[in-house]
Amino acid sequence: MANTVVKIDGLVKRYKDLIALDHLALEIREGEVFGLLGPNGSGKTTTINCLLSLLAYDNGSIEIFGKPMTPTSYDIKREIGIIMQNVAVFDELTVYDNIDYFCGLYITDKAQRKQYVDEAIKFVGLEDFTKFYPKKLSGGLLRRLNIACGIAHKPKLIILDEPTVAVDPQSRNKILEGIEELNRQGATIIYTSHYMEEVEQICTRIAIMDKGHKVAEGTKEELKKMIKNTETISVEVRGLTDEIREQVASLPHVYLAEYTDGILKVCCSGGKHNLIRVLGVLQEHELHIGRVYSELPTLNDVFLEITGKALRDKED
Question: Which of 22, 36, 116, 184 counts the highest number of beta carbons within 10 A?
Fold first, then answer.
């Protein structure tokens, strides 16, 4: 079994009468891309700030690489890379000098630092922009620079907080491919995003937070098994009567059957061959059937059912 990189146990953080984190427990293993999801006010940002010892907490413990994390744990902090949602670079420095500066906070040997900076520039695809100042970069290129500054020193643990917000599709793909490559090279990743398709694409395990609690955790497949809706069937059909709709609703594993504007929507919980059974009822009554869709639940469906909230709100 892989070593534990991050262990959070019984973490409590209060702001006067508000409990931002309520006995939170998380364990992140070496080599994971760990997704941390939650709606506005769930406590994700508070968790990250406590994890980095940027914020004092009231109770509980945090260990990174098997050691207690404190504000003076500089040996641990050298092994962490942080890419936050707000771009943090110096406008007065060029692309190259920005990366060189941040890398220099950890790597003092000049030859090694130059090698690391060159590798970071190549990694994020900024070879043609090394002499540019940040204000001359597009939003996507600026995000890539932000990532290069955070990973140039080759950290073992990388925390990415909304790294693809407001970037073009090409840059988003480049960033996601880069994250997967960092993981293949051995880095453990903590990833927060409001884009469920990204989380489904790159995360090996996911925790969902709400009101300071961890409300669900597992792989995307495990999370999808936690909710009631396991399949949604949509059928274009003419002349469906209430009697036929009720017959569909009485089928095994069907818990909802609605007919609106010529579309029969059937929600199922568990079971196999649900689509065949639904079509069998319709064909039995010789109804004209148009397009048919069968959709498995998405991570967004899981999130909505577990939290009752849309994910793409502003961060807490």
Answer: 36
Determine the 3-state secondary structure of 206 from DSSP.
strand
- Examine residue 78 and state whether it is found in any structural domain, yes or no: yes
Task: Provide φ and ψ at 77, rounded to 5°.
Answer: -65, -30
Q: What is the pTM of this model?
A: 0.85
Q: Strand 205-210 vs strand 213-218: parallel, antiparallel, or unpaired?
A: antiparallel
Strand ranges across the sheet with 188-192: 80-83, 157-161, 188-192, 33-37, 205-210, 213-218
Range of the domain at 193: 4-224
Question: Sheet harboring 4-15: ordered strands across?
Answer: 18-29, 4-15, 59-64, 67-68
**Are 72 and 98 contained in the same domain?**
yes
In a domain, 315, yes or no: no
Question: What pLDDT is recorded for position 172?
Answer: 85
What confidence tens digit (pLDDT) does each residue in 245-287 have? 999 999 999 999 999 999 999 999 988 899 999 999 999 999 9
Torsion of CA 192, 47, 149, 102, to 10 degrees: 180
128, 168: one domain: yes
With beta carbons less than 8 A apart as the criterion, state whether 296 and 224 touch: yes
Domain total of the chain: 2
